[in-house]
Write a structure and sequence with these properties.
Elements (H helix, E strand, L loop, with lengths): L1 E3 H5 L9 H11 L2 E9 L5 E8 L5 H4 L2 H12 L25 E5 L7 E8 L8 H9 L7 H13 L3 E5 L9 E7 L5 E3 L5 E3 L5 E4 L4 E4 L3 E2 L12 E7 L2 H11 L4 H7 L6 H16 L3 E2 L4 E2 L10 E3 L1 H8 L5 H10 L3 E5 L2 E5 L10 H12 L20 H15 L3 E2 L5 E2 L4 E2 L10 E2 L4 H11 L8 E9 L11 E9 L7 H22 L5 E4 L7 E5 L2 E6 L3 E5 H7 L15 E10 L4 H9 L6 E12 L4 E10 L8 H17 L3 E2 L1
Parallel strand pairs: 4-7, 19-23
Antiparallel strand pairs: 1-3, 2-3, 5-13, 5-14, 5-15, 6-13, 7-10, 8-9, 10-11, 11-12, 16-18, 17-18, 20-22, 21-22, 23-24, 24-28, 25-26, 26-27, 27-28, 29-31, 29-32, 30-31
Helix pairs in contact: 2-4, 6-9, 7-8, 10-12, 13-15
Length: 661
């Protein structure tokens, strides 16, 4: 917003710094400087405009001269003259009452929290005084007449938009009915600029018994505008809901100085302040007789809650060591009163500071007025702490790493779909009305779709499912759990290949269990179908595995994980690798074979891994192929050592009746 340097100076007895220095001081502590401009009106009046960027959080108090004057006073620590002092003892007319002229009704008090009206009579319409014309022209505003110029001036000074209606143009005989209500769909209003706007039922208007008088909170209407014949005014100051004004302004593509202020939320207290100021100026410069009675829909306003704070917390947050007295003095410069109640300290914040709600806001105010440049740089002093491990997240990382190493792709499917146990009250669409209770349906769908591009794809997903156990959750509490599912898409699985594919699927999970530390897993036949197994440990079932898919409860798995970590020194000597393959009966288990081989391996064995299974249908047998890795911590192993170790393996396998390939 552009501010007149001359107008600001009027509110200070002390001479302010030059415009450039003033702009810089406020820029360092409050608002970013957008620019400085020297202006001269047609009448020869000279001024300097300082453009500060007033952000939305400070628009409630500083999108006007009243606020910027207080801000400059706080930054420079100098007293200012309150504009209200000039009329605080002024007495308005008690010869007539506004309520005898106007009846005011508000349709929606949530959108119009507070509305005020005052009647002014015997008004003289004429040119504005020179100082007022100079002010308006210096900020590129056109002077109309004394009444219109005063309403504009009041908005610039207080930040509260106000309006003056020609009372004699209002419909009705005697006492007039005034409504603040929603427009009718298709209703048209011509504004003061002569532009016509078509409204809908969401836009507010101020209306009489017959017509809309203006577009509420945005722009006045031509039908009730002030002209040279006006002698009686209905003065209006209203507080509007900022969301409604913003929506209406965007819808009508009509933004004004008034709507800009309402969009950024104007404190309700400003309605009466602006009304009193406008009434005083009209009596002084329009010779008006203004009623002392205000018709007010909300005369009693709630007091803003006090903020509890601690001096030491403010210092800690800012990295300062200010005394309690220094903090109190800084807050006092901002007109924030510090109160002590029962060994607690509270801050009473001015009504216009809608941005101050928590003690951290107070700390920010102290910091910026004290000067951020005065806070010395220092490295943080912090005790080193080992962060608490997130075991679930750690396990998810391990699971993902194993499967990605085996060529799986991780997918993220949507949570909302057509199937599930928990239904939304207000679904976005018919096919997104349920919270998923399983990861598999969409995993199957996406996996099968990818078969169009490749026959060799594997997918897994880790995510939340939502279960609604109505027998246990009497309060309709939805249970959220992390599940872990996998799918190996195939076009068609012939019966003779099902066992091999099941063993492959089972093998991937065994590697996962080995990585995360779940031992002695049991695989039991499930009632879900052929080649479907229940996976459990200690009789705790935590999932099902099929021929080419699985779905496990990750949180139950977490309870079974042994998180003990053993660290070993990495050997500096090379490894030796050997392979062994042999035939076993068709129903022989891999685990039994592994145990046989391990029983004769030397301590220098660092890895034993199954890497191939081949099924010989004709001879009713199958072949296992293992890779064995040897490595010593003390010396380099040679072929003699490896051959001797493998001879023991061969002998053990032959003793067990297996044929070496």
């Amino acid at each position: 917003m552009k501010f007149s340097y001359n107008t600001i100076q009027k509110y200070f007895e002390d001479k302010l710094p030059e415009a450039e220095k003033l702009a810089e001081a406020v820029g360092l502590h409050s608002f970013e400087l957008e620019g400085i401009e020297e202006v001269e009106t047609e009448s020869g009046y000279k001024d300097v405009l300082i453009d500060w960027d007033i952000l939305p959080n400070r628009s409630s108090d500083c999108l006007c001269y009243m606020g910027i004057v207080k801000e400059i006073s706080a930054v420079l620590d100098i007293p200012y003259t309150n504009f209200q002092d000039q009329y605080k003892e002024h007495k308005f007319s008690s010869d007539f009452k506004t309520s005898d002229f106007v009846n005011l009704e508000v349709q929606d008090t949530n959108l119009v929290p507070k509305a005020t009206k005052i009647i002014a009579r015997n008004v003289k319409i004429k040119e504005s005084p020179e100082w007022l014309k100079n002010f308006l022209e210096s900020i590129d505003q056109k002077s109309i007449n004394n009444v219109v110029d005063i309403t504009n001036y009041v908005m610039w000074i207080t930040g509260q938009p106000v309006h003056a209606f020609d009372y004699n143009k209002l419909a009705g005989e005697g006492k007039k009915n005034i409504y603040i209500k929603f427009a009718e769909d298709g209703q048209k209003v011509t504004d003061l600029s002569g532009d016509e706007h078509e409204l809908d039922g969401s836009v507010l208007v101020i209306a009489d018994d017959q017509k809309a008088l203006d577009i509420a909170g945005i722009k006045g209407g031509e039908v009730s505008g002030v002209d040279q014949n006006t002698d009686t005014l209905m003065l209006s100051a209203v507080n509007f809901n900022f969301k409604n004004i913003r929506t209406s302004s965007k819808k009508l593509k009509l933004q004004t100085d008034a709507s800009k202020r309402f969009e950024n939320e104007v404190p309700q207290e400003k309605t009466v302040i602006a009304m009193d100021f406008m009434s005083y100026l009209l009596e002084k410069y329009a010779e008006a007789e203004v009623s002392a009675e205000i018709v007010d829909t909300k005369p009693d306003l709630e007091t803003k809650a006090e903020i509890e704070f601690k001096f030491e917390k403010i210092n800690s947050l800012l990295g300062l060591e200010l005394s309690d007295g220094q903090i109190v003095q800084i807050l006092k410069r901002l007109e924030i009163e510090v109160l002590e109640k029962e060994d607690k300290v509270f801050a009473k914040v001015p009504f216009e500071r809608l941005d101050l709600n928590i003690w951290q806001d107070l700390a920010e105010e102290v910091g910026r007025i004290y000067g951020l440049e005065n806070i010395k740089e220092s490295l943080p002093v912090e005790e080193f702490k080992i962060p608490r491990a997130n075991k679930l997240k750690e396990m998810i990382y391990h699971v993902s790493d194993v499967l990605v190493d085996y060529g799986f792709f991780e997918v993220y499917n949507r949570t909302l779909n057509e199937q599930g146990k928990v239904e939304l009250l207000n679904p976005l669409s018919a096919n997104a009305k349920m919270l998923r209770s399983s990861l598999l349906p969409l995993l199957f769908q996406k996996g099968d779709k990818n078969l169009q591009h490749s026959d060799d794809v594997k997918f897994f997903e880790i995510g939340k499912v939502f279960l609604d156990d109505k027998t246990e959750n009497e309060n309709k509490v939805v249970e959220e759990r992390f599940y872990f599912a996998g799918y190996i898409p195939k076009r068609k699985i012939k019966d003779k290949f099902k066992e091999d594919l099941f063993l492959e699927t089972k093998g991937y999970l065994e590697k996962v269990f080995e990585k995360i530390g779940i031992e002695n897993v049991e695989w039991k036949e499930s009632s879900e179908g052929d080649f479907v197994a229940e996976v459990s440990k200690n009789d705790e079932v935590f999932g099902n595995v099929g021929v080419n898919f699985w779905e496990l409860d990750l949180e139950k798995m977490l309870e079974l994980v042994d998180f003990k970590v053993e660290y070993k020194t990495v050997s500096k000597y090379p490894t030796i690798k050997r392979d062994v393959s042999f035939f076993v009966p068709v129903d022989f288990q891999v685990k039994v074979t592994e145990d046989l081989i391990k029983s004769v391996l030397p301590t220098e064995t660092v890895d034993l891994e199954l890497f191939d299974i081949y099924k010989d249908k004709e001879n009713n047998r199958k072949s296992f192929a293992f890779n064995i890795v040897f490595q010593s911590m003390e010396k380099t192993l040679d072929d003699v050592f490896a051959n001797e170790a493998m001879d023991k393996v061969y002998d053990k396998l032959k003793e067990s009746g297996f044929e070496i390939r």
